[in-house]
Amino acid sequence: MIKGTNASPGIALGKALVLEHNEIVIEKKTIDNIELEQKKLTDAINKSKEELTKVKEKALVELGAEKAEIFEAHLLVLQDPELVDSTLNKIKDEKINADYAFNEVKNMFVSMFESMDNEYMKERAADIKDVGNRVLRHILDIKFVDLSTLEDEVVLIAHDLTPSDTATMNKKKVLGFLTDIGGRTSHTAIMARTLETPAVVGLKNITETVKDGDYVIFNGETGEVIINPDENTINEYKDLKEKFEKEKKELESLKGQESKTLDGRHVELAGNIGTPNDVQGLINNDAEGVGLYRTEFLYMNRSEFPTEEEQYESYKAVLESMNPKPIVIRTLDIGGDKELSYLEMDKEMNPFLGYRAIRLCLDRQDIFKTQLRALLRASVHGNLRIMFPMISSLEELLSAKEILESVKSDLDKEGIDYSKNIEVGMMIEVPSAALISDILAKHVDFFSIGTNDLIQYTTAVDRMNEKIHNLYNQFNPAVLRLIKMVIDNGHKEGKWVGMCGEAAGDKRMIPILLGMGLDEFSMSPISILPARKLITSLKYEDMKPVAEKVVSMGTAKEIEEYMQNNFA
């Protein structure tokens, strides 16, 4: 048995299809006919453009406008004169073959992006590799697996799945994904959860271990993978799959029911989204609202800031489709590991501690005001709640609110309508905000706790650093005490408190958070019904002492084991 990172729940059994993308072998050759080699390059680029245009159109229909933008970015790579002209010149100046020249130039750009410190820019290196390999296959006339025409059901095995892989595949024939690399927040993991397809990632060398046609079974919830199992094991996993499908079907009966404990405490179960297209997953899983709409995806994979009108249309689409359910939209949270290629930002030693989120917005009020105008205009189409990210002081909160009021005043002068009942809240992501939450609570309508960053800042652990990953733990007693403090302080001022970090959907955390009095839980769409099942089986009064007990424990391990043994 092999163990990887559980990326998307479900059991998959089937024959493996290993995506090797046929290894591309490049050899340096001296050539006589420069024009012929240059033509090979331009033909390959034109074919790649035609393919990517079709992929983009397919993605637009099946995945929505925001995900289709990824392929617009890929098309832009092919139009980059630095890439194309440099290769044409290299062929001419060095009298070498087109594939070798292009590969050299492509690798130079890949190395440049990979050497950058932040994760977002590193992802751009993957885009260039993806597009570049497509061009190379055309130059060398290498055939590759067309995932859109799969005829048999398969388990896809890949080093990693590219955006074009997931956008073009025939999803009815794909039983699940297994990849060498990636974590729970990788593109493959996010796509698997969006498609509700089982997946295990981070298996290190699964593409070398498995061969085409091997029989593979895996559990996307535990991360366990077995290759060519015996008959007994196959039957065991068939039973597990049947049980999983039965439980999934049973969860359907919870649709339309209140998320209420056995002793009558109601909590709100909402979902996290990145684009308007993600709303369908929330509707399918009966979410009671949107607890976090990450607006930064509107700004990424493009060459300039979205206009006020583009933003208005995106916010309006989400508000209308979920109306009258509440929609919490977070204002721009850029910086840290999320950069914009068209926004010049100085290189920082510690970008997570630097110029990001509300700090950037308070400094660049032109960007901030445009977003606030779009939000306010869209507010007439539904139940909008506005949330500010990364607030670390009362001064920042008051400044953000002041700018919001100035934008309202501008709209009033222009005679533009907006809702007068918008709740305004803030995220609790840093210890300083948690520690003065009694003061901050007087100035907001709600708090939403972002555990991903709160854990990072409280424990001084970079969540991207694999060497210290074991120290990044939501069960750390210090983190739990801060969460309890925020909930208590919010309630003292009569304000509701939610959570939109990964912990809100964890079955071992839900009883603790329920006992602490959390009012709203926001999570991945596929976690909503399992969370409702758990909450409706518990008593709020019974969970209060559980919460008290765990915050008195000394270690994360002790707390995690206690919750695993009693509630998982």
TrEMBL record:
It is found in: Cytoplasm. GO terms for molecular function: phosphoenolpyruvate-protein phosphotransferase activity. Residues 151-223 form the PEP-utilising enzyme mobile domain. Pfam families: PEP-utilisers_N, PEP-utilizers, PEP-utilizers_C. Residues 31-58, 230-261 form a coiled coil. InterPro entries: PEP-util_enz_mobile_dom, PEP-utilizing_PTS_enzyme, PEP_util_AS, PEP_util_C, Phosphohistidine_dom_sf, PTS_EI, PTS_EI-like, PTS_EIN. Residues 249-538 form the PEP-utilising enzyme C-terminal domain. Its EC number is 2.7.3.9. Residues 3-124 form the Phosphotransferase system enzyme I N-terminal domain. SUPFAM superfamilies: Enzyme I of the PEP:sugar phosphotransferase system HPr-binding (sub)domain (SSF47831), Phosphoenolpyruvate/pyruvate domain (SSF51621), Phosphohistidine domain (SSF52009). Its cofactor is Mg(2+). Keywords: Coiled coil, Cytoplasm, Kinase, Magnesium, Metal-binding, Phosphotransferase system, Sugar transport, Transferase, Transport. It is an enzyme of class 2 (transferase). It catalyses: L-histidyl-[protein] + phosphoenolpyruvate = N(pros)-phospho-L-histidyl-[protein] + pyruvate. The keyword rRNA-binding does not apply. Its main location: cytoplasm. The keyword Transport applies. Belongs to the PEP-utilizing enzyme family. General (non sugar-specific) component of the phosphoenolpyruvate-dependent sugar phosphotransferase system (sugar PTS). This major carbohydrate active-transport system catalyzes the phosphorylation of incoming sugar substrates concomitantly with their translocation across the cell membrane. Enzyme I transfers the phosphoryl group from phosphoenolpyruvate (PEP) to the phosphoryl carrier protein (HPr). NCBIfam families: PTS_I_fam. This is Phosphoenolpyruvate-protein phosphotransferase. It comes from Tepidibacter hydrothermalis.
